[in-house]
Each structure stands twice: as C-alpha cells, then as structure tokens.
Amino acid sequence: MGTNWRRHNVVDLLRAESLLIGDGYRAKNDELSTSGVPFARAGNINDGFRFRDADYFPHENLHRVGNKVSQPGDVVFTSKGTVGRFALVRPATARFVYSPQLCFWRSLEHEVIDPGFLYYWMYGREFYLQYKGVAGQTDMAEYVSLNDQRRMHITLPSVREQRSIAHILGTIDDKIELNRRMNETLEAMARALFKSWFVDFDPVRAKAEGRQPSGMDAETAKLSESDLTRLWGSGAPHVFLSHRADYKKETKELKEELAKYGAASFVAHEDIEPTRTWQTEIERALASMDVLVAVLTRGFAGSHWANQEVGVALGLGVPVVSLRLGEDPKGFIGNSQAIGGYGRSTAEQARALIETFSSHPRLASGLLIGLVRQWELVESFADAIRIMDLLNACKTMPEELLARIEHAYETNNQLHKSTGVKRKYPNFIARMKSSTKGAA
User: What are phi and psi of 262, to 5 degrees?
Assistant: First the structure.
C-alpha cells in the first residue's frame, strides 16, 4: 500500500461531517402502500436494486422518515439477517426509503471520500474483517449495529487516487452488467422463438396463409425438410456441438464418432457451405437441434458465440450436456449433466455422450431412429456387423422401426449376405418381437 494511504477512524469522519452512517425507518404496516417510493429491504439489495416485489411508502408521508431516503452516492449495506450485501445508489436509481435491515454510508464531503471508492472499499478485506468480527456476537441472526460501524476504521488514499480506482472498477462492473443484460435479452428472445415455433406454430400458420412469419427473415422462414437434411443429413438426434474455434478439428472428429451411433452433429464453420451466410445457418441449426453439447475446453466461458449458443438452448428448453475438457461448466449450465472427457479418446467421449443421450426419453427415441437409418444405408459388411451389435444392445424397438429393420435386411445385400449379421439377426428379431408383445 502506498505511503499516501491514511487510516481514519470512522468516528472522526462522522464528527468532521465528512461521512454520515444511518439506518432504516421502522415503518408500521399501515404506513405502507401500493404506490409511492419503494420501501427497500435486504431482499431488494444484491449488487444493485430489485424493486419488483417491494412495498411502497407514500410520497405525502416522506417527511416522517427524515434522512432515511436514498440519495445518489449512498452505499447501501445489509446489516441485519442477510449481512454483507452492497449496492451503490446511482443517479439513475429510483429514490427509495431504507428499511431497518439496511444501513447506508453517505459521503458528505466528496473531496475527502469519493462515493464510488467507498462502495468498492466496502467489498474489500478491511471492511469485511471488521463487520464479520462483530456480526455473530449474538445468538440471534447476524447483526451489525450502527455503533459497531461507527467504531470501525477506513484507509483512504488521496481523493484523486480514489476516483481513479473507482473509475477502473466501475468500468469493469459496467461491462459485466452489460453482458448480464445481453444474456437476459437472448434468453427472452429464445423463449419467445420457442413459443412462436413450437407452441403457437406461427411459422406453420403463416405459411398456410401465404405470409412470412413475424420476426423471421425470409431465408430462415424457408427452413424446410430439405434444409434439415442439408444441415443434419439423415441421422438423429440432432446434436449441436458448441465449441471454441481453436478446437474445430477435434470437434469434427467427435462428430464422426457420434455418427457411428446414428447421431447427426452440426459443427459450426465445418458444416456451412461457402455460399451460405454462416450466421443464418447457425441460427437454423440452433432452431432445429435436439440437444446441445458444450465442448468445455479452456476459455469456453469466454467465447461470446459459445455463450449465446448455450443461452439459445436453455431458452428453447433443449437439453444441454457438458463435455469437460479442461474447464468446468459455469453459470446457468453449472448444474447441468457433465461428462469427464479429459484423458479419454474421442471414441470414448462419443460413447459416453451416447450413453447420456440414451437416458433422456426424447433423445433415446432419436438415437433409435438414427441407428435404423444407418442400418438402412449400410454399404459394407464391416458397418453391417457394427450396427448389428448396436441394435443388439437395444432392449425394445417400436414396431414401425422394427418393420424398417426387417425391410432393409431383405433388400440390402450388405446385410443379408453378411455372415456376422446372419448369426445374430434372427435372435435379435425374435427378442424385439417378444418385447413388443410383452409391452402390449
């Protein structure tokens, strides 16, 4: 710490009227209303202000609360119950009344204490050690009294340095807040898109009426069966592989391994034709995916595109499976299903993903469809035996898929002339038909 940093007793700053520390107004229930200014409690404070569920204090009665009304530059501190939340009252913050769960530190002399610096200081170690040291002194909920706060100390640099520190940290906070709002907007857009496409069926209705679907450009509105085939081929389920650009080669290899199980995967920049707008194609793939696999290599969370792809999947309610390859899942996918991929071969990673998909009813159905489609398109004895083994691992098979399997066996020489397939196929068919009758 530089030599120009000086330690001050808070009580001395109070006496010099450079600082004011206050608590909230003890309002009676009949003093609160549904209109006026928000009556802020601890639940409304967390790195900012959330007043959606707040009670209100009537404008005409504000004279009762004295200085317990917020002012720009106040630093708010939750001092009772949930101790240790902070917020800075900014010029654009709606005026509100403090409740008894809150305290505020108000700089009265900005040439001594900069409000922005005071806010970030309260997040620091010096203040943390002081309030934590007194918060648990009673057997009741944590509480830091006004007297406790007035007995504290604060170390201050010159006001010029205070402002410089506050500016740098404030700029970082502004970027974090902007990203948070962008994520909220993307999630809202994704939910609206899902509702429009898959609940209200707006594109279907619009096409039937000869209209272009609202909120959808002409290219995206043309998404058809041929578009789906171009994007995904004939496999299922549709697996969107979200990855960092520097992991494209390995992700392509993962796609090839998943294809051996019948799954169709989309790898951005790999599956986009040079003549097509890449962003439009990614949007189409996101709109038609069945599952998103987040390939979590180092730096994944810092990729704007990867974050947006995950956000769309969450907004659409599409399952997200994380493949850990050097980074743990963060944010909204922190609690999602994760597979350890580090140290495994690409084939082992693909098998672990397929096993995970199999535990999800909708994805399991897609896997069966993709596997049957591969069976129908077999072009070699080796592939015929490999797919026969995969089919043999199935416990049941829907009648319509079983009929397709039988038809393909009869018409495809690579199937009915394969010795390896012929040894296993009769028992497989008998077992599947038996399980179908049992289910009936």
Answer: 95, -5
Kindly state the tokens that stand for 205.
């209705």
Quick count: other Cβ atoms within 10 Å of Cβ 311?
22
pTM (two decimals): 0.48
Contact 285, 266 (CB under 8 A): yes
Q: Considering just the CA atoms, what is the radius of gyration of the chain in Å? A: 31
Half-sphere exposure in the Cβ direction for 37 (13 Å, CA): 18
Residue 81's alpha-carbon distances to 26, 43, 162, in angstroms, are 16, 10, 31
Q: 6-157 belongs to which CATH class?
A: alpha beta
Give 215-246 pLDDT, tens digit per residue.
Answer: 555 655 555 667 777 788 878 889 999 998 88
HSE of 223, CA atoms in CB hemisphere, 13 A: 20
Helices (H), 46-124: 115-122
CATH superfamily for 223-357 is Toll/interleukin-1 receptor homology (TIR) domain (3.40.50.10140)
SS3 helix, strand, coil % of the chain, rounded to 5? 50, 15, 35
Res. 277: pLDDT tops 60 = yes
